[in-house]
Amino acid sequence: MRQHLIMGNWKLNGTKASVEALVEGLKAPVAAAANVEVAVCAPVIFLGQVEQLTAGSALKYGSQDADVHTSGAFTGENSPVMLKEFGCKYALVGHSERRTLHAETDAVVAAKFVAIQAADLVPVLCIGETLEQFEANQTNAVVEAQLKAVIDVAGIEALAKSVIAYEPVWAIGTGKTATPEIAQAVHAHIRAYLAGFNADVAAKVQVLYGGSMNAANAADLLAQADIDGGLIGGASLKVADFTAIIEAAAK
Questions:
Q1: Mapped to the 3 state alphabet, what secondary structure does the chain carry?
Q2: Where does substrate bind (predicted)?
Q3: Which residues are documented as binding site for substrate?
Q4: pLDDT tens digit string along 189-240?
Q5: Domains recognised in the chain with CATH numbers
Q6: pTM of the entire structure?
Q7: Is 187 designated active site?
Q8: Catalytic: 181?
């Protein structure tokens, strides 16, 4: 039985005060949902604060990206080794905003995946299609290609020590959400595709839904057989909304 994982992605949001209020506000609901793992991915500048605030709590955390290099002349980047030193468990890789705004290719994403895992962090591999690809019925082909790029470099067994987040790009921050049936169909396809390489890995890996999950739709999405949690954007910035999603997962 795969444990549910509810992960917040704060994106480029937060102040010292709001981070403290958010983390402190999540401690009780996280403690109450012992059967669910809860994590937040903070802007890297707040990771030291998050490390201190989460001490002694069940709340895990990670980064929103990591560089492919561990050290060197790479101004502005953050090494996965540095992230590990600050207590991160997770690192997002291949988020749609990194792929589009920073032109990260499947090859770059695969290299980062390997570097993240080499630092003993858990990569959260984000995959998903654009609106144009969705309307052209290319969803399955897109997610297969994005997965295959990582499998070719890291091997299928590496995915057993990772998390996959399916994020339909057309449903991120747009207010649109894939219906539970659409989301489940893609999640099931992802698992079936992985099973073609290794059935044990396919059965074990957590596949999260990352397309505008919120307090209102979380229960229906999380009830689907192949949806193992959520990668939450805007709703993760509000204690009440994020708590409602955690409670839906706990049920």
A1: CCCEEEEEECCCCCCHHHHHHHHHHHHHHHHHCCCEEEEEEECHHHHHHHHHHHCCCCCEEEECCCCCCCCCCCCCCCCHHHHHHCCCCEEEECCHHHHHHCCCCHHHHHHHHHHHHHCCCEEEEEECCCHHHHHCCCHHHHHHHHHHHHHHHHCHHHHHHCEEEECCHHHCCCCCCCCHHHHHHHHHHHHHHHHCCCHHHHHHCEEEECCCCCCCCHHHHHCCCCCCEEEECHHHHCHHHHHHHHHHHHC
A2: 9-11, 173, 212, 233-234
A3: 9-11, 173, 212, 233-234
A4: 999 999 999 999 999 999 999 988 999 999 999 999 999 999 999 999 999 9
A5: 4-250 (3.20.20.70)
A6: 0.96
A7: no
A8: no
